[in-house]
Amino acid sequence: MEPEPAPADTQAAFEADFSLQHQQQAFLPGMTQPELTVRLEELKYTFCPEGLMCFVGPSAWPELNVTDAQGRTQRVVFTPFNAQRVPSTAWLDTTSVRANNRRYVFTYQRWQIVKPLGRGVYPGKSDFTLWFRINRIGK
């Protein structure tokens, strides 16, 4: 079975929502001379198909590679959700990265499955879309 091709690269704006799929990257604020390049490098998830009873509900947590304008890459890992985390209806998790002599706040907002699944069918990594927002701080 052939691996699925990665989705096409995209561009995104700071202080605006954008989505990524597994192995897709976004250039911020544009494709030419990006300030940041964000790639959804890895995706871990749990899923409970319709009609089944599961101990763990559906969830998705990403691992991003963030490359600055000088080509330095950092790994950003959003940790699995647990009972100690205070749930928010507006976002799932936040973290910050220092790059290009400034700080960027990453907000992981939500995930969704991009195509209908049949009863008892588990999604693959390519079936997920994850939504983010990156705000620039300082400078």
Describe the overall structure.
The chain is mostly beta strands and 139 residues long. It has one domain. The protein is 0% helix and 47% strand. The protein has strands at 10-11, 17-21, 25-28, 36-46, 59-68, 73-77, 93-99, 102-113, 128-137. The protein has a five-stranded mixed β-sheet, with no helix packed on it. Strands 2-9-8-7 form a four-stranded antiparallel β-sheet, with no helix packed on it. β5 and β6 form a beta hairpin. The protein is elongated. It starts with 9 loop residues before the first strand and ends with a strand. The model has no long low-confidence stretch (mean pLDDT 87).
Q: Round the mean pLDDT to the nearest integer and report it.
A: 87
- Structural class, by secondary structure, is mainly beta
* Uncertain parts: none
Radius of gyration: 16 Å
Can you count the beta strands? 9
H/E element sequence? EEEEEEEEE
Which word captures the global form?
elongated
Largest sheet data:
5 strands, mixed
The domain tally reads 1
Provide a count of the helices: 0
Summarize the SSE layout with pairings.
Elements: E1 10-11, E2 17-21, E3 25-28, E4 36-46, E5 59-68, E6 73-77, E7 93-99, E8 102-113, E9 128-137
Parallel strand pairs: 1-3
Antiparallel strand pairs: 2-9, 3-4, 4-5, 5-6, 7-8, 8-9
Considering the chains and any ligands shown, give keywords for the structure:
0% helix, elongated, four-stranded antiparallel sheet, mainly beta, 139 residues, single chain
Outline of the structure:
With 139 residues, the chain is mostly beta strands. The chain is built from no helices and 9 strands. A hairpin with a 7-residue loop joins strand 3 and strand 4.
